[in-house]
Design goal:
This protein is mainly alpha-helical. The protein has one domain: Four Helix Bundle (Hemerythrin (Met), subunit A) (Up-down Bundle). It has seven helices and three strands; from the N terminus they run H-H-H-E-H-H-H-E-E-H. A three-stranded mixed beta sheet has the order 1-2-3. A hairpin with a 2-residue loop joins strand 2 and strand 3. Helix 2 runs antiparallel to helix 5 and helix 3 runs antiparallel to helix 7. The relative contact order is 0.23.
């Protein structure tokens, strides 16, 4: 299953930007490629940039990396919940509150990278366990429809979106 196979009715239009950022490849391949690409991207960030903010009140790359991992956990849980339920409905989450309470600045770069890799490996294991019917299951999150497979592609596009922002505004 590729991102081009996902119907617009499987997700809120807000997520189209993220899904469009993903190559038209199999979801598992996209998750694996994202892991390699983004791990290397973050490992190669200059030390001087990890705590940098390009403007007052903006997140640092430490904040962004932890946000990517936290958001992946949320979307992976949505995928799990939707795959196992009927008429599943979950609340949304406040990404700014999550970031504020995550205290990324107090964490080492090594621990943030390890966290990201651990989360992605768990996500890969989860999505590898789904069959075709489970991937097409729908649920609601934050009042909007989302399929399991759309959640997977949003994970991939979301991290790409943030790496693009770091490249454009931080480097």
């Amino acid at each position: 299953m590729k991102s081009s196979e996902i119907l617009l009715s499987e997700y809120n239009p807000f997520y189209k930007h993220y899904i469009d950022l993903v190559e038209d490849i199999n979801l598992i391949d996209a998750l694996e490629k994202g892991l390699k690409t983004n791990q290397t991207f973050f490992e190669n960030l200059p030390d001087s940039k990890w705590d940098y903010q390009y403007a007052e009140g903006k997140w640092t790359p430490k904040d962004i990396l932890l946000h990517i991992a936290d958001t992946e956990r949320v979307f992976a849980y949505r995928a799990l919940y939707f795959s196992r339920s009927i008429n599943a409905e979950l609340k949304g989450f406040d990404e700014n509150l999550f970031s504020e309470n995550a205290l990324a600045s107090s964490k080492t770069v090594a621990s943030l990278l390890q966290n990201y890799v651990s989360v992605r490996n768990a996500t890969l294991s989860l999505f590898q366990s789904f069959n075709e019917n489970q991937l097409k299951q729908l649920g609601k999150a934050n009042g909007s429809i989302m399929s399991v497979r759309a959640a997977g592609f949003v994970i991939c596009g979301h991290e790409k979106h943030h790496c693009n922002i770091i490249t454009e505004r931080y480097l």
